[in-house]
Design brief:
By secondary structure, this protein is of the alpha+beta class. It folds into two domains: 151 residues, no CATH class; 110 residues, no CATH class. The chain is built from six helices and 16 strands. An eight-stranded mixed sheet has the order 3-1-2-4-8-7-6-5, sandwiched between helices. It is globular, with a radius of gyration of 19 Å. The protein starts with 6 loop residues before the first strand and ends in a 12-residue tail after the last strand.
């Protein structure tokens, strides 16, 4: 496989995060390209690819996810029924020196924090428009999992949710349709599908309550920390990593947590690629 057959992308290229995607081969649909763009990856070419290769070899916190069509054996693993299916569509198996993430029917990622390049095999169901929003939800979830693992060592934490003025509404995974907002505390950046902005000084993190009417209730720092801890997009069998726990603790002190009436919130409905 030569680089001419591949496409390379960098996450928020303008912010210079060392996090990349590679689409291996030329048989990916326009929908996959649309999804990559929607999630704030921008294509890199020529000398930028050379710079990426240097980054991957020299920076221990750099990451690249190589997405390719799964072969027969990997596709069988993705499609097969396992004991973990009773807990949901996503699972992680811990192996000797690496981990295997599976989204049933969609993708398998083999990854290790000791390696800069991770492999992702996908089926024909990946980002398949014929599946409707369910297919795009799965694809957004898979790439956002990769981002959540890759950005954590860089001081960035993600939550299922959507941006609002001066903050974000944190949602359950399904309610967010696989959308994630990322917060870089040290560099004071807030990233979403709408782009990247400076983190507002009075940043609000909101939880919806369908029983609440016509008012907001302020959460304590401990209440906010507990809420954020169970809604982060970071996923690991051992729970949140030390880096994530430290970020959550800092964010719960620096942000304003609010409980907001569900009836007065309008969720994002346009996920067009």
């Amino acid at each position: 496989m030569t680089s001419k057959e591949n496409q390379y992308f960098q996450y928020h290229r303008d912010l210079d995060y060392p996090v990349y995607l590679c689409l291996e081969g030329s048989d990916f649909s326009e929908e996959v390209g649309g999804l990559v763009s929607q999630l704030s990856f921008r294509e890199i070419r020529g000398n930028e690819i050379d710079a990426m290769q240097r980054e991957l070899s020299e920076n221990r916190n750099s990451r690249q996810l190589c997405i390719k069509r799964a072969g027969f054996r990997v596709a069988s693993q993705i499609e097969s029924a396992t004991i973990s299916d009773r807990y949901g569509l996503e699972s992680i198996l811990t192996k000797s020196g690496y981990k295997v993430y599976r989204f049933k029917g969609q993708a398998l990622i083999v990854y290790s924090y000791a390696a800069s390049v991770w492999e992702c095999g996908v089926t024909d169901q990946f980002c398949n428009g014929e599946l409707g929003e369910a297919g795009f939800f799965a694809a957004r979830t898979i790439i956002n999992r990769f981002l959540s693992w890759s950005l954590a060592p860089l001081g960035v934490v993600g939550f299922w949710g959507v941006p609002v003025e001066n903050g974000a509404v944190v949602l359950k995974q399904r309610d967010s349709q696989g959308e994630v907002v990322f917060i870089d505390i040290q560099n004071r950046k807030f990233m979403s599908m709408d782009g990247a902005i400076a983190l507002p000084i009075r940043f609000k993190l909101m939880r919806l309550d369908r029983h609440l009417k016509n008012k907001n209730i302020k959460m304590t720092s401990d209440e906010l920390l507990s809420f954020l801890s169970v809604n982060t997009s970071y996923f690991d069998p051992e729970g949140n990593s030390l880096a994530i726990r430290q970020l959550l603790s800092a964010l719960s002190r620096l942000s304003e947590g609010l409980i907001h009436p569900s009836e007065s919130f309008s969720p994002r409905t346009d996920f067009s690629l």
